[in-house]
Design a protein that fits this description.
This protein has 296 residues and is of the alpha+beta class. The protein folds into 2 domains: 122 residues, 3-Layer(aba) Sandwich (Rossmann fold); 157 residues, Tumour Suppressor Smad4 (Sandwich). 27% of the residues lie in helices and 34% in strands. It contains 9 helices and 15 strands. The strands form 2 sheets. Strands 5, 6, 7, 8, 9, 10, 11, 12, 13, 14 and 15 form an 11-stranded antiparallel β-sheet that branches. Strands 2-1-3-4 form a 4-stranded parallel β-sheet, with helices on both faces. Strand 8 and strand 9 form a beta hairpin. The chain is elongated, with a radius of gyration of 19 Å. The chain starts with a strand and ends with a strand.
């Protein structure tokens, strides 16, 4: 019988995963898979405990129930410890940008079927300053801090709408900043209000922000939002909800395997929705990265 490690964050999203664990274990067991549950963030030494567990047992794969922040934690843990077991993500956080981007469903029965079908894809991983990793996106500027500065109770109750409400509250305080972006082929300076580095199509709960983005091509998609008037900002928001951002005149778009970012202001970045360092930073794409179960 194959053995899988089931990591779950009991505080992700609406926190209902605690009531579904037995059903998930039963579904895998009926498919001939022995699933061992592990409660994430249960102690200060959970990293050490998790590492010891992975070293003492022979697992065929890892599955994670959590949101973008839980996934970011796990990606950093795996990369720093040189572990590359196939990873399946059950999206139960607030936005679940990466999980939805690779076709993962929040229907338990369908999700178990995806894992047991065994289809995987090697996905790029981002590395910041040589020591911190991300899997979905990172960014800085207006709205970028909404995810980690939003009250957990609001996220539990409202879902992604909690981020949008937080972001709307920032509109009166929009302050543009100068950014210098250096890649292997470009050197640009722009006056912007926001930048996003995408590894995939989704960010902040919006699907298909950039429809041509590919998680396995060895390149990041870099979007810089110019300091536009309020009407243009509304148009950009509408495009994010509907058709995607390709071709908008107020957005500078680059693709690169690595880049250096500097600013004239103190800009803190958000990494998969979690607090990150301040600019300047160096970002590079690790290709190939980690293996994920996918549903497309």
């Amino acid at each position: 019988m194959d053995k899988g490690l089931f990591l779950f964050n009991p505080k992700s999203g609406d926190q209902s995963i605690k009531n579904k664990i037995d059903y998930i274990i039963k579904k895998f067991q009926r498919s001939g898979i022995f699933l061992i549950p592990f409660r994430m963030f249960d102690a200060t030494d959970s990293d050490k405990t998790l590492k010891n567990l992975l070293e003492s047992e022979k697992f065929s794969f890892i599955v994670l129930s959590g949101g973008d922040g839980s996934l970011n934690y796990l990606v950093n843990f795996l990369m720093k410890n040189g572990i590359n077991l196939p990873l399946g993500v059950f999206p139960c956080g607030t936005c679940n940008d990466f999980a939805h981007g690779i076709g993962m469903t929040d229907n338990i029965d369908d999700w178990v079927n995806v894992i047991t079908a065994g289809k995987t894809r090697t996905v790029d991983v981002g590395c910041i300053n040589g020591s911190r990793y991300f899997i979905g996106n990172m960014g800085g500027g207006v709205f970028a801090g909404a995810s980690f500065s939003t009250n957990n109770e609001m996220k539990k109750t409202l879902g992604p709408a909690a981020y949008y409400l937080k972001a709307l509250g920032e509109l009166p305080q929009i302050e543009p900043f100068n950014i210098r972006v250096e890649t292997g082929n470009y050197l640009l300076e722009e006056n912007i209000i926001l930048f996003i580095i995408l590894n995939g199509r989704n960010a902040a709960g919006f699907s298909n922000i950039l429809k041509q983005a590919d998680v396995s091509d060895g390149l990041f998609d870099i979007l810089m939002f110019k300091n536009a008037n309020p009407v243009d900002l509304v148009n950009i928001f509408v495009k994010m909800v509907s058709s995607g951002l390709s071709g908008d005149r107020n957005i500078v778009y680059l693709r690169a395997a690595e880049c250096n970012l500097k600013s004239d202001k103190q800009i803190q970045v958000s990494i998969d929705g979690e607090q990150g360092p301040f600019l300047p930073i160096e970002v590079r794409c690790i290709h190939p990265g980690l293996r994920f179960f996918v549903n497309y």
